[in-house]
Amino acid sequence: MTSRTIFAACASGLLLLTGACGGSEQGTSEGDVGDATTTSDVTTMTGLSAVAPWARPADAGKNTAVYLELANTRPEGDSLTGVRSAAAERTELHESVMEGETMRMRPMIGVALPSGGRIVFRPMGPHVMLLRLRDPLVPGDTVEVTFDFASGRSLAVRAGVRAP
Ligand SMILES: [Cu+2]
Question: What superfamily in CATH does domain 3-24+32-161 come from?
Fold first, then answer.
């Protein structure tokens, strides 16, 4: 699938930020350090950290978004090359851009994550897009997404589902 058709697939469901990508910015919450498969607020693995992951509730077949902060705590830089999840037909990295008065979103291909750097996925900003959910996501559920990096590392993160 080309990037153009990927964008079209997303745009057909959520072109305007009135759905999964909208809403007000959320603060991060406190949490314990855990491993890559827990629901704790911080996931750390091989020098990569995922802080305060969460996902918006949505019905099966719909699109939604996952938010979190990714940090590279190693001396070497890296870059995010993709994201995947078994919870949706497709999973994309998206950014939000203003076109005139309208907030739209488009796929991101590769995101630099320098040493000591971080990427903040947030409402109205970059986000992980879950396209056509296989099952509904209701508050209290969790959804797993896996981030792939140019270094060959992968980081699996389990995000709690909650209303924004
Ligand atoms: Cu999106």
Answer: PCu(A)C copper chaperone (2.60.40.1890)
Tokens of 50: 């995922």
Of 162, 142, 152, 126, the closest CA to residue 45 belongs to 152
Contact by Cβ (8 Å): 48, 42:
no
Distance separating alpha carbons of residues 122 and 25, to the nearest angstrom: 7
Q: pLDDT truncated to tens, each residue of the chain (164 aa)?
A: 444 434 433 433 333 433 444 333 333 333 333 334 444 567 666 788 999 999 999 999 999 999 999 999 889 999 999 999 999 999 999 999 999 999 899 999 889 999 999 999 999 999 999 999 999 999 999 999 999 999 998 999 999 999 98
Please provide residue 10's backbone torsions phi and psi, each rounded to the nearest 5 degrees: -75, -45
CA of 46 to the centre of ligand 1 (A): 28
5's enclosing H/E stretch is helix 3-14
User: What is the Å distance from ligand 1's center to 116 Cα?
Assistant: 26
